[in-house]
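An instance noted here:
***
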Amino acid sequence: MSKPVVAVLTVLALTSLPAVSAAIEGELTLGVGPGFTDLPTRGSEGQSGFGGGAFAEYRFDLFWGVTGGAYHSYQLSRPGDELGGQAITSAWLGVIYNLDVATYVPFVTLGPTIFLSSPELEDEKGRKVDAGARLGVGVDWRRYRDWSVGVEIDLHAFATDLGKYPVYLTSMLRVNYHIDLL
């Protein structure tokens, strides 16, 4: 094996080793990040776009906590599609479960979401689509006590006509700062 390959494998192995849990009770996490979005049922082939968000998480213990935040996105119009672009802003509050026992910290979030959209999303009966639920999964790489980076994918289900808008997908590359409040 060449020296560069050995060096890369060594770095990967050392950064992947389990670490002592960095999480503590009473910890506040603040994070931001850019992302990709998809509204697969809007237009003839769906609309994809870009966005970004900010969030906060508070841990009650090593595993459970509360989370809340906001995400703004713009879905681009496809060439030849009669629909223009779609802007969606969402805000959520929910619970988070972290499995913080190693350098990589997987997590799951769940909670209600409100939506503001322009132009307004409407179901088949003309009612505004402005509420729903959010299920998120992700993983953070927490190599340091105060900082971590990660990725999160969220599935939003609208509370109106699931036949017309069954899901809205968002993803985010997360940069997190952790604060000990206790």
